[in-house]
Design brief:
Blueprint (H helix, E strand, L loop, with lengths): L2 H8 L7 H16 L3 H15 L5 H10 L4 E7 L3 E7 L1 H10 L6 H15 L1 E10 L4 E13 L5 H18 L4 E3 L8 E4 L1 H6 L18 E2 L2 E2 L16
Antiparallel strand pairs: 1-2, 2-4, 3-4, 3-6, 5-6, 7-8
């Protein structure tokens, strides 16, 4: 599926109820992926963003609605941080039905990659559930000094790794926050923990695949989390 398919589907009147979406998202995928569920969905969100790039923040909001993610609103922003709020009937229903297991890593990864594409700077995101208001807040951390359009792949990998380590030092690790009351329960998922678990030492860029990587801000992007990994051990 690509951006052309996206436009064609939007022109149809075919609709899917919320049960179908939740069955795949919170039923099948969570059981299939188990503990890897949030990490893989964060990567998947980034991959979707690469397939369906947007030009403006309004386009990002529109995609969230069309994809059934919910209603996205920007709350605050500065040179390094953006805070977003996600709400809507489906968001409220997912939070209510799945209690402590509701996960929005897919949306976090999508939002981070869209902002990375638009700004040309490395960006990562975390999410936090607010059960009192039945909504989700996203914090996107970016660093305009860590650009993703440098020419050297090793420099790109080093830049992202340095950014993740710096972000990891300032963002709280994933945890369930002790609430003051039963109505004020929140969960924060730190994506940087899973990203830092990747081993860059075994990452090799094949010469014949250099021209097949995604483009970003008019330049070729090489994402270290999306580069084929080759092992020296022979297959048995």
């Amino acid at each position: 599926m690509d951006i052309n398919d996206y436009d064609k589907i939007l022109q149809t009147n075919f609709q899917v109820n919320s049960f179908a979406l939740e069955l795949l998202r919170d039923g099948l995928l969570s059981n299939l992926l188990q503990e890897d569920y949030p990490h893989i969905l964060y990567w998947a969100g980034k991959e979707i963003a690469r397939q369906f790039p947007t030009d403006t923040l309004d386009d990002v909001k529109e995609f969230f609605i069309n994809a059934g993610f919910g209603e996205l609103t920007i709350i605050s922003q500065d040179s390094k941080n953006q805070r977003w709020q996600l709400k809507g009937d489906l968001v409220q229903q997912r939070i209510h039905l799945n209690k402590q297991t509701t996960d929005f890593s897919l949306e976090a990864g999508f939002l981070a990659q869209q902002l990375e594409t638009q700004t040309g700077a490395i960006a990562e995101a975390t999410f936090k559930l607010n059960r009192k208001n039945n909504d989700v807040s996203f914090e996107v951390v970016t660093d305009l000094d860590q650009l993703v359009d440098v020419e050297d792949i090793q420099a790109r990998v080093a830049s992202r790794e340095a950014f993740l380590k710096k972000t990891h030092d300032t963002v709280e690790k994933a945890s369930i926050i002790t609430a003051r009351s039963e109505d004020d329960i929140s969960k924060e998922q730190s994506i940087t923990d899973s990203l830092l678990a990747f081993n860059f030492d075994d990452t090799v860029l094949p010469q014949d695949e250099q021209n097949n990587l995604s483009a970003l801000s008019g330049n070729e992007e090489i994402d270290p989390f999306n580069v084929p990994t080759h092992h020296n051990k022979p297959l048995k």
